[in-house]
Design brief:
By secondary structure, the protein is mainly alpha-helical. The protein is built from five helices and two strands. Helix content is 59%, strand content 4%.
Length: 106
């Protein structure tokens, strides 16, 4: 159930051209307790695998770290690199992903 809610919440944020934090996402999809951020991260990484396989922008780009000054957590970039995305400039890569996602919402 959480994965379906995850997809719905991220789709709404893309349509609204907004971002949210990992903690806020966990709360919106009903995850609480210890390890909730890790569970969210695992679900987001599965979405990144799916998006990459389908050659879509990474929906996980909508989720930001409180500590990364407007960027996703380091694990987002590590996973993207693992999936074959070339990242020379993390901020530029993130901006390009968001731009592509938001363009799809038009």
């Amino acid at each position: 159930m959480s994965e379906a809610r995850l997809h719905a919440v991220l789709a709404r944020y893309v349509r609204e051209r907004r971002t949210l934090t990992y903690g806020a996402l966990a709360a919106e999809i009903g995850l609480d307790g210890a390890g909730r951020i890790q569970r969210v991260t695992s679900m987001l990484e599965r979405m990144m695998e799916e998006d990459t396989a389908l050659r879509r922008p990474l929906r996980a780009a909508v989720v930001l770290s409180r500590r990364s000054y407007g960027l996703p957590a380091r694990g987002f970039f590590e996973k993207a690199t693992e999936l074959g995305h070339e990242i020379e400039d993390p901020a530029a890569f993130h901006a390009a992903q968001l731009s592509a996602l938001f363009a799809m919402a038009d």
